[in-house]
């Protein structure tokens, strides 16, 4: 049976694939608007999948909580899930999920990811409440979307392993069928101009010449050029049953061991009043790392077992640390 975090992740991937499919259609009149809505939805589901993963798949970790008003008019002393008009529990939004992952659990995410999501959200909100009909804004969605896909691929791979190898994640470059050299002559309405000015201000904080694993925007250029080359990487398939078999997947390891070193340290800091990252902590942690119930050594490159490794931890490891530190009273 699949865990809640894995099911949420699958929905996230489905939403991103839908965004890409819509965007790459040869003639779609609501391309950029629909892409921005589905892309942001995919990111929200990814972050919620990570929250569930870090919280041992407890659905309450996704609920908006509130102190309810009692019949006496006073506020309750116990937090309860906030409910919507139909009576269902309301879940946290995209940026609250981002805050929980980065602040409550201490997971490090490059700032460019946050800036990219904010910019795309601005376009999504503008798309829902207004009408976007400008070529420059279309080009900016292309740049933001390309960077967002790259960021998405890196985080999914880092958090959940190599589960996207079967998919092709790319946006067809608009320059393939549109001439953006003529775009500056297009007039903008006031709403679209404000969105573009906002994104331009965000872009000014980044170095255009530097492309890293995580980016705010990516500018893609397509050039047609005749090339004759015999170079390439030789690949050979074989049906030889005696050939070496290489397994690249780590099934459900991300669900069982969702915490890395930084996340573990952050959670212990919030859990105990006398916790310090000193020799005692490292000694206890190293002892527990020998127990497969609490720790797992993930090989970063399955093709090179002698390469780097990353230590991952099961949340149940906290119960062992309870024997050595004093828990903070709620």
UniProtKB/TrEMBL annotation:
Sequence ranges assigned to domain DUF3644 in this UniProt record: 8-205
Cross-referenced InterPro entries: DUF3644
Superkingdom of this protein's organism: Bacteria
Name the UniProt record assigns to this protein: Uncharacterized protein DUF3644
Classification of source organism: Bacteria, Pseudomonadati, Pseudomonadota, Gammaproteobacteria, Moraxellales
């Amino acid at each position: 049976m699949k865990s809640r975090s894995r099911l949420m992740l699958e929905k996230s991937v489905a939403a991103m694939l839908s965004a890409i499919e819509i965007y790459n259609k040869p003639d779609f009149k609501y391309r950029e608007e629909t892409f921005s809505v589905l892309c942001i939805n995919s990111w929200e589901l990814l972050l919620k999948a990570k929250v569930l993963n870090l919280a041992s798949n407890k659905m309450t970790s996704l609920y908006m909580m509130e102190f309810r008003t009692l019949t006496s008019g006073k506020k309750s002393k116990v937090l309860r899930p906030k409910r919507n008009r139909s009576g269902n529990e309301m879940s946290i939004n995209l940026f609250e999920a981002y805050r929980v992952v980065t602040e409550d659990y201490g997971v490090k995410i490059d700032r460019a990811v946050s800036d990219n999501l904010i910019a795309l959200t601005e376009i999504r909100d503008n798309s829902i409440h207004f009408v976007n009909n400008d070529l420059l804004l279309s080009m900016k969605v292309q740049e933001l979307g390309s960077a967002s896909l790259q960021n998405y691929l890196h985080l999914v791979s880092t958090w959940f392993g190599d589960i996207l190898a079967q998919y092709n994640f790319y946006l067809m470059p608009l320059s393939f069928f549109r001439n953006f050299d003529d775009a500056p002559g297009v007039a903008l309405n006031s709403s679209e101009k404000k969105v573009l000015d906002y994104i331009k201000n965000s872009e000014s904080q980044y170095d255009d010449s530097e492309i890293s694993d995580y980016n705010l925007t990516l500018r893609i250029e397509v050039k047609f050029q005749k090339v004759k080359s015999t170079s390439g990487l030789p690949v050979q398939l074989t049906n030889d049953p005696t050939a070496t078999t290489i397994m690249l997947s780590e099934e459900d390891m991300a669900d069982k061991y969702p915490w890395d070193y930084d996340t573990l340290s952050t959670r212990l800091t919030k859990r105990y009043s006398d916790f310090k990252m000193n020799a005692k902590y490292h000694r206890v942690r190293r002892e527990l790392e020998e127990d497969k119930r609490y720790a797992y050594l993930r090989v970063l490159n399955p093709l090179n077992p002698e390469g780097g490794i990353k230590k991952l931890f099961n949340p149940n490891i906290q119960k062992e640390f309870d024997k050595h530190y004093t828990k903070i009273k709620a």
